[in-house]
Amino acid sequence: MCLVQPCSLALPPRLPHFIFIMVDDQGYGDIGYHGSDIHTPVLDRLAAEGVKLENYYVQPICSPSRSQLMTGRYQIHTGLQHSIIHPRQPLCLPPDIPTPPEHLWHLGFCRPSCLPTGRGFQSFLGTLTGSGDHFSYQSCDGAEACGFDLHDGDRPAWEMAGNYSTLLLKQFLKRHDPHTPLFLYLSLQATHAPLQVPDHFLHLYDSQYNRLRRHYAAMLSCLDSGVAQVVQELKTQELYENSVLIYSSDNGGQPLSGGSNWTLRGGKGTYWEGGIRTVGFVHSPLLKKKGIVSRALIHVSDWYPTLLGLAGARQSHHGLDGHDVWGSISEGLPCPPPWRGMEPLAGPRRG
């Protein structure tokens, strides 16, 4: 699914533009700079020119990871620790928990107040369910409940059917005022099943892999091309020099759908490293140190306070599980301790 959710923050000029790209089910081993033979030259270059996050953790499935991104709180504090939110479940991210004006797929849509435009976004283009067709946008919750799921704001975007979901990336950048701070959240269905991709990307792997791996690899190459278009549009619209681009997968890859988490054990849905340690990097002209690898312990819940800090927002960190880690990313400063703000238990010392 492609979920393009921008928000113009009501803040003074010259504060950073944020572009957060959340990929669905990309495996730890499925990027060029981790040794993959899948073609991801743009992602490799952006990561090489920025900061690669090599000790970066998420949750093993999507709704918990995405809720932590939006709230800075572990999923046990939002009630989203169990599984994804299915299309016919009357659930969503609790409305009393503040978000950095945004909302995303798999956090519910059962009421208008749960929709992206009800949670702070000024504009929304995308899908509200998961696992839909990447071209027709038909989505089913079991055989008996199917429908069209591509929305522009609160209306069905029938006219956009046929466009491939991953390439609906830069629609809003063309009309954004570069002097107004922007939050653009790109929540992509790639590389989640169904494994579908335009044929010219599939031909890159004509002589490689089995069918699942071939389609999965082609989807990542298509995603790589789409990110290149976004970066070019940022430069064209004079947004790039004052932007922070963050790239993350929501969980580990699904081997049954072509993903690979090598050299880690396990995959999506598990608490082994292959399910929760994932691809992540930051690319920005605003980084003080570039072209480095960060070993700082960073969790998806840390993005909420980090983005608010960069935006100059005065936000109480009371009740948050995440930490502002921009100093660790940009300057290589020590990261918060492993117990993430909790007091360690007292006990006898060893030695």
UniProtKB/TrEMBL annotation:
<dbReference type="Pfam" id="PF00884">
    <property type="entry name" value="Sulfatase"/>
</dbReference>
<protein>
    <recommendedName>
        <fullName>Sulfatase N-terminal domain-containing protein</fullName>
    </recommendedName>
</protein>
<dbReference type="GO" id="GO:0046872">
    <property type="term" value="F:metal ion binding"/>
</dbReference>
<keyword id="KW-0479">Metal-binding</keyword>
<dbReference type="InterPro" id="IPR017850">
    <property type="entry name" value="Alkaline_phosphatase_core_sf"/>
</dbReference>
<comment type="similarity">
    <text>Belongs to the sulfatase family.</text>
</comment>
<dbReference type="InterPro" id="IPR024607">
    <property type="entry name" value="Sulfatase_CS"/>
</dbReference>
<dbReference type="InterPro" id="IPR047115">
    <property type="entry name" value="ARSB"/>
</dbReference>
<keyword id="KW-0325">Glycoprotein</keyword>
<dbReference type="InterPro" id="IPR000917">
    <property type="entry name" value="Sulfatase_N"/>
</dbReference>
<keyword id="KW-0106">Calcium</keyword>
<dbReference type="GO" id="GO:0008484">
    <property type="term" value="F:sulfuric ester hydrolase activity"/>
</dbReference>
<feature type="domain" description="Sulfatase N-terminal">
    <location>
        <begin position="16"/>
        <end position="313"/>
    </location>
</feature>
<keyword id="KW-0378">Hydrolase</keyword>
